[in-house]
Write a sequence for this structure.
């Protein structure tokens, strides 16, 4: 008896590491010390000495049951972008710059090419957010998970000067809400999605005219990373008073998280075009509108609050990085919460 006979292939692990090295290398920043394979990722923090009061930010998350979609489609090169996005978007939401990222892949069986494909997506997410992929772990779990399945999660660390921390404390009535477009469902609500649509190859390969693509292509579209867009707004001299990452819980749970007491967010539903995938989900699943806005991002992955005088400048800055943005509402007086009108 040996370890391989028990279900853990050490040689496959070595091969996975070799295959992923080329992807990891693309994410390196000057602050990274050492290479892949050490017991810990080392990152030089000398540059943060230039900040008055540096504050470290951290975020950890996974892709939820969106990985089921990757299994059925046998497409594993974008799910890693989702894992990075869910972590770095939260850091950017607080005004921070992501510094580095680590991933964790648990699998029933280590197929090196598949693992390398997953990591290629993780690396792409790191490139998009300018974070270094400094380490990770691939754990083979025989008898705990089916051989062809895996789960993916990640952890990111960022930094912000305390004076630039986005807290929402200065939001006041009259401030403008700007919505930044999502690329689709992102990585939240897939347990409901999987109840509406069968997760079969036939179902996911079905072409829908209203989508302009197959159902699978629409659903697996990776989460938009907003790091560069929010950085561009800051560099344009605009103060982001509040920022909400629209993830699990949709509008109703996430928008109030950026608000101080005594104000409400008023979002105009007709201020932008809700993407076709959400309309299809609502129709096919007979899902009430309130539940849709309480579960999905409905086409807005981020919402920021700015002074009305800065709205045009903020939108221009976001569009300069390829983001689509528009005014979607305003802040009014009232109990903390959100109204969709």
């Amino acid at each position: 008896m040996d370890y391989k006979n028990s279900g853990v292939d050490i040689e496959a692990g070595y091969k996975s590491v070799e295959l992923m090295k080329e992807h990891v290398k693309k994410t390196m920043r000057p602050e990274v010390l050492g290479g892949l394979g050490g017991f810990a990722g080392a990152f030089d923090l000398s540059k943060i000495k230039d900040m008055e009061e540096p504050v470290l930010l951290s975020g950890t998350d996974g892709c939820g049951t969106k990985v089921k979609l990757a299994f059925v489609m046998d497409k594993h090169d974008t799910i890693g972008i989702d894992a990075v996005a869910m972590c770095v978007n939260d850091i950017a939401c607080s005004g921070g710059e992501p510094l580095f990222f680590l991933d964790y892949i648990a699998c029933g069986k280590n197929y090196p090419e598949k693992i390398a494909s997953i990591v290629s997506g993780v690396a792409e997410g790191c490139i998009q957010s300018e974070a270094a992929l400094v380490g990770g772990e691939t754990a083979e779990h025989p008898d705990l998970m089916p051989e062809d399945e895996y789960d993916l999660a990640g952890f990111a660390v960022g930094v912000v000067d305390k004076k630039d921390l986005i807290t929402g404390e200065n939001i006041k009535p009259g401030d403008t809400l700007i919505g930044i477009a999502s690329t689709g469902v992102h990585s939240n609500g897939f347990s409901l999605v999987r109840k509406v649509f069968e997760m079969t190859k036939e179902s996911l390969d079905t072409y829908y005219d209203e989508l302009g693509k197959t159902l699978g292509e629409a659903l697996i579209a990776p989460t938009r990373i907003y790091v560069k867009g929010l950085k561009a707004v800051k560099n344009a001299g605009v103060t982001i008073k509040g920022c909400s990452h629209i993830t699990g819980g949709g509008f109703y749970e996430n928008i109030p998280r950026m608000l101080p007491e005594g104000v409400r967010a008023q979002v105009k539903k007709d201020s932008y075009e809700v993407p076709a995938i959400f309309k299809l989900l609502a129709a096919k699943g007979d899902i009430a509108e309130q539940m849709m806005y309480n579960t999905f991002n409905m086409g807005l992955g981020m919402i920021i609050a700015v002074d009305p005088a800065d709205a045009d400048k903020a939108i221009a800055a976001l569009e300069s990085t390829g983001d689509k943005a528009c005014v979607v509402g305003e802040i009014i007086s009232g109990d903390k919460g959100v109204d969709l009108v």
Remarks:
- Residues 112-129 form the longest helix (18 residues).
